[in-house]
Amino acid sequence: MAISSGEGPSRNNTSLNRKRPRITIRYRSRESEERHIVEAQGGSTNHEDRERDAGEGRGRQNEEIEEEAEDAVAAEEEESEDVIEVVEVEESFLRGKPASEGDGGGGRDGSIPVTLTDPDILNCCICCQPLTIPVFQCENGHIACSTCCVKLANKCCYSCTAPIGNIRCRAIEKVLESLKISCRYARHGCIEKITHINKSIHEKDCIYTPCWCFIDGCHFTAPSKKLSQHINNEHHGSFLNFYYDSFLYLTLGLNQKAVVLKEVTDSNIFIIKNDLEYLGNAIKVFNIGPKASVETYRYELYARSQGCCLKLDSFVNHTLGNNFPATTKFLLVPVDFRGPSPEVNIEIRVYKVYESSRRE
């Protein structure tokens, strides 16, 4: 069976010279909101006044209001081409009044929904990576992450050459602490809401990270659970079933590059890679899926020949299926060990362990 070793898609870094958009937040008080609604309807706040406004005077007033509104909108659009999002919030929110005390506020926890159509706005302008605390700014307000501040020559701002690295940007830091966003793998089923500063940590181990089908010529991608279903339905017969904590006996042929194993109880996919090296066979064990934060897997691998035995007891390597990284965790079976037979007889046992008991 052929195992694909192609690299997954990579994301190009954004240009450092790209114009960064700004966010505009507009608010109006409740009195001005009511007055705006009434005026748009062409009347006043008093019922008797509305009756007196009937006739040609009211018609002319409506036309003037509409013309002024159109001119204001046109001017605003011309001046705000780089505005990516306009968020309207209650005036009480900006004054610190809890959202639950007024109508039209945020959620029960005091939060308000905000949409960023350009998520790169919270990335460092130098390295294009997500900003993390601490964030520094120069005297002119240009910001950079702490890692880039250390690397900047003479501690000068990348934009205006003013000193940078001593003044913290507390406003941006508070935004990063309070902002919660969806996981990038939400469309694959993840419902977690994480803070921006913990985004990369969560996504590194997210169980909904898409994995690539490793069968040569197949381009299917999905989370590890759905990938297991795909392997079972579309590539049936290309794997062997096994159980945790039970030994499985296999014979690897001279040109057999891999063996696919599927655990019966939870359908996890494991791959035994058989790489031919100058000194012999380098046998490695991989689990298809992200590295779990709670549980992981350990294995015992034996190779037997002519009354001799080689053993490797180690943790399973993890891969997303798009490549099989080089690792020092493998069992080397020398050419002389297997004797005249081109085949290698192995035994393997895979079992679960937990992070608290993991010791190497």
UniProtKB/TrEMBL annotation:
Keywords on record: Metal-binding, Zinc, Zinc-finger
Domain SIAH-type: start-end pairs? 178-236
Q: Where is this region: Disordered?
A: 1-81
**Residue ranges with Acidic residues bias:** 64-81
What are the Basic and acidic residues biased-composition ranges? 28-38, 46-63
Alphabetized PROSITE patterns for the sequence? ZF_SIAH
**One GO MF term attached to the UniProt entry:** zinc ion binding
Q: Which stretches are tagged as biased composition: Basic residues?
A: 17-27
CDD domains recorded for this chain?
RING-HC_SIAHs (cd16571)
**Pfam families in alphabetical order:** Sina_ZnF (PF21361)
Do you know which InterPro entries this protein is assigned to?
A: SINL_plant (IPR044286), Znf_RING/FYVE/PHD (IPR013083), Znf_SIAH (IPR013010)
State what this protein does. Answer: E3 ubiquitin-protein ligase that mediates ubiquitination and subsequent proteasomal degradation of target proteins. E3 ubiquitin ligases accept ubiquitin from an E2 ubiquitin-conjugating enzyme in the form of a thioester and then directly transfers the ubiquitin to targeted substrates. It probably triggers the ubiquitin-mediated degradation of different substrates.
Tell me the protein's name.
SIAH-type domain-containing protein
